[in-house]
């Protein structure tokens, strides 16, 4: 018997305490509890009589669970250690997907301490809950047996936890926040308190998906400072308890800061350009003036910021890097003061970067393939390459998009719900063996969390609906959602941390991970932790692509510092929430490239000719990042279409061609454009 710590159980639900049956007289007097840390004993490692170890359902911990034979007398017996004699809580984690109760007798060291303990139905065989009772243990080794008492046998049994069970009940959702004391650079946010079975210890304040501040659990307001004048902030609140459980996000509130009385700086002098290369240029400009002093200059392409210069006073020259080769640019400069005032833009300076290097081709000008979309989220190609399936996040609809440009709705995914943020219908992956099984796979947000499901597509319509994996925590943001088949034939999926950062480091949690599974919904053979987890330490990964050597590359959103491009290896820990960007710490894997969050917010990625193409939302651009041959390093990232098409969501390689499809996502709740305003572009790699 090899016990494992209970401290990292991410999928357990709150245990229901039941009354303990009478114990023998010698043990009836109160006794001290044995000094036990909570310890897990996996059922598959116990003694099993008239039962089998199985893995055909989801959500279990360890390597499997015990499926009792449907006879009275079938049992599982655990060897349990205690450092001293006394009474300890025993929690049996189980699932019962039938309508009938499956009672069991619980005995300790051969004596029944609770008879006919009820193990009633759960929602299905993938839904696990707990039954807890207090039982006497002696110092040293004990045997704890759970025996079925009816012909229905026992429930599916996942594990026994001995000692104080971990708190797995999340706080309730905080009430809708409101704003008071609004000024040009700050405001006070207040909200009705959340509740928790143990106690709320903290509240986190989010602006869209980024954490702005936190307060202690007994405080339901926060003064936010350092805000930009005349700016709308979309604010929500999440409650946390001492165990790290996070509530659903509150309803959001939009609060707009005041314009302020401070006059903005004057426009900077017209910029000049020199030292133009294929990917960079040096700019200089005349200084702006301000009554309280200029604190920063921004070099912009339209509304997109390419470089920021700070200082006291800031310099009036900078080298702008990461530009696209052989491309025209018209750049301006604006000045900012300490109050957040922004000057008028300078006159533009125009130039064209030098010729492109011959290291894998460069993207040409986008041509509109299809329009009228509302947040097209993912693309998966049919095996013959003539068309692809495209999901719409908020409508839950699925379309067949032909290479010719024709678009046809083929159905919708049942049970999908929105989160008024990043949840909804997300990833899609067509089975490599679609021609024989007609299977397609989706990841979507449902009532209880995020799911990976399978449906049938006959070439014209979707049908059927089978849940392969659920129990992936959802929240307003950080839901991940990308699906991709690997060269090994297994299905890979990205999951966000569900705005509960600690889950990303919990190997027993499905959140903050890249998962690897079979098409039947089981953990893929060879996974590093004997469960679904392939890699961990991810905040909100949304990009997946395999290179010519079959290696997996991934892109993910950072919090407030750096977004990342990672080379994924099985069992790798990519650092969140310990750090974002380069960690430089033993046991954590650093990214191959990173960007400040305002320049990227990466979603989809694709690889063509050994070059990674990355679609950026907040950065409103597509990055081109060459892989250095067959090494594990990448070259200089360059930017295309900066600010031209707005927020870019998904980029996909066209089969059999040096082409990309690129989707916009301006109709989401950050782009603020109307439904039907998004497009899919076709791009040829020259």
UniProtKB/TrEMBL annotation:
Gene3D superfamilies for the chain: Galactose-binding domain-like, Immunoglobulins, TolB, C-terminal domain
Q: Which PROSITE patterns match?
A: CBM6, FN3
Does Signal show up as a keyword for this record?
yes
Q: Does the keyword Hydrolase apply?
A: yes
* Keywords associated with the record: Carbohydrate metabolism, Glycosidase, Hydrolase, Polysaccharide degradation, Signal
Write the signal peptide boundaries: 1-28
Instruction: Pinpoint the CBM6 domain residues.
Output: 39-163
What Pfam families does the annotation carry? CBM_6 (PF03422), fn3 (PF00041), GSDH (PF07995)
Descriptive protein name? PQQ-dependent sugar dehydrogenase
Q: What is the lineage of its organism?
A: Bacteria, Bacillati, Actinomycetota, Actinomycetes, Kitasatosporales
Ranges where the Fibronectin type-III domain occurs: 173-260, 267-356
């Amino acid at each position: 018997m090899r016990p494992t710590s209970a401290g990292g159980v991410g999928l357990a639900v709150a245990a229901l305490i039941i009354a303990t049956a009478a114990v023998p007289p010698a043990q009836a007097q109160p006794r001290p509890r044995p000094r036990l840390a909570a310890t897990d004993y996996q059922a598959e490692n116990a003694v099993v009589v008239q039962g089998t170890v199985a893995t055909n359902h989801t959500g279990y911990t360890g390597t499997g669970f015990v499926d009792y034979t449907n006879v009275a007398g079938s049992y599982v017996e655990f060897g349990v250690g205690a450092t001293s004699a006394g009474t300890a809580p025993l929690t049996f984690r189980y699932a019962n997907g039938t309508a009938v109760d499956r009672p069991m007798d619980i005995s300790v060291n051969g004596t029944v301490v609770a008879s006919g303990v009820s193990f009633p139905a759960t929602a299905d065989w993938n839904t696990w809950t707990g039954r807890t009772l207090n039982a006497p243990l002696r110092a040293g080794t004990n045997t704890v047996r759970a025996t079925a008492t009816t012909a229905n046998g026992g429930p599916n049994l996942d594990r026994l936890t001995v000692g104080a069970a971990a708190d797995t009940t999340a706080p309730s959702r905080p009430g809708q926040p409101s704003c008071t004391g609004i000024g040009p650079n700050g405001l006070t946010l207040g909200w009705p308190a959340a509740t928790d079975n143990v106690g709320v210890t903290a509240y986190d304040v989010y602006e869209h998906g980024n954490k702005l501040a936190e307060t202690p659990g007994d405080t339901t307001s926060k003064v936010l400072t350092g805000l930009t004048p005349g700016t709308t902030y979309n604010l929500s609140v999440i409650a946390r308890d001492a165990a790290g459980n996070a509530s659903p996000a509150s309803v959001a509130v939009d609060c707009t800061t005041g314009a302020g009385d401070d006059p903005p700086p004057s426009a900077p002098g017209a910029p000049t350009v020199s030292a133009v290369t294929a990917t960079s240029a040096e700019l200089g400009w005349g200084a702006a003036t301000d009554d309280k002093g200029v604190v920063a200059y921004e070099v912009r392409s339209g509304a997109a910021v390419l470089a920021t210069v700070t200082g006291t006073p800031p310099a009036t020259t900078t080298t702008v890097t990461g530009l696209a080769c052989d491309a025209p640019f018209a750049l301006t400069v604006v000045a900012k003061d300490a109050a957040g005032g922004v000057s008028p833009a300078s006159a533009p300076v125009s130039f064209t970067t030098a010729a492109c290097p011959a290291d894998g081709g460069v993207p040409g000008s986008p041509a509109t393939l299809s329009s009228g979309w509302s947040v097209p989220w993912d693309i998966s190609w049919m095996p013959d390459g003539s068309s692809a399936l495209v999901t719409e996040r908020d409508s839950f609809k699925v379309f067949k998009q032909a290479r010719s440009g024709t678009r046809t709705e083929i159905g919708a995914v049942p049970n999908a719900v929105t989160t008024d943020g990043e949840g909804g219908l997300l990833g899609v992956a067509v089975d490599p063996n679609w021609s024989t099984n007609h299977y397609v796979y989706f990841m979507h947000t449902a009532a209880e969390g995020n799911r990976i499901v399978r449906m049938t597509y006959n070439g014209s319509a979707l049908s059927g609906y089978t849940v392969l994996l659920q129990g992936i925590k959802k929240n307003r943001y950080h839901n991940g959602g990308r699906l991709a088949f690997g060269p090994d034939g297994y299905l890979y999926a990205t999951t966000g941390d569900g705005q509960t950062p600690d889950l990303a480091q919990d190997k027993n949690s499905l959140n903050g991970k890249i998962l690897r599974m079979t098409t039947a919904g089981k953990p893929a053979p060879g996974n590093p932790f004997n469960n679904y987890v392939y890699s961990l330490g991810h905040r909100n990964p949304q990009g997946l692509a395999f290179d010519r050597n079959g290696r997996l590359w991934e892109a993910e959103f950072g919090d407030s510092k750096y977004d990342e491009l990672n080379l994924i290896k099985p069992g790798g820990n990519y650092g969140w929430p310990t750090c974002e960007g380069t960690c430089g710490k033993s046991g954590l894997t650093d990214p191959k490239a990173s960007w400040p969050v305002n320049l990227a917010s990466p979603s989809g990625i694709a690889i063509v000719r050994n070059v990674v193409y990355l679609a950026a939302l907040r950065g409103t651009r597509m990055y081109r990042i060459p892989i250095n041959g067959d090494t594990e390093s990448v070259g200089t990232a360059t930017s295309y279409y900066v600010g031209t098409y707005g927020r870019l969501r998904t980029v996909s390689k066209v089969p059999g061609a040096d082409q990309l499809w690129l989707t916009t996502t301006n109709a989401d709740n950050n782009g603020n454009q109307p439904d039907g305003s998004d497009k899919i572009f076709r791009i040829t790699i020259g």
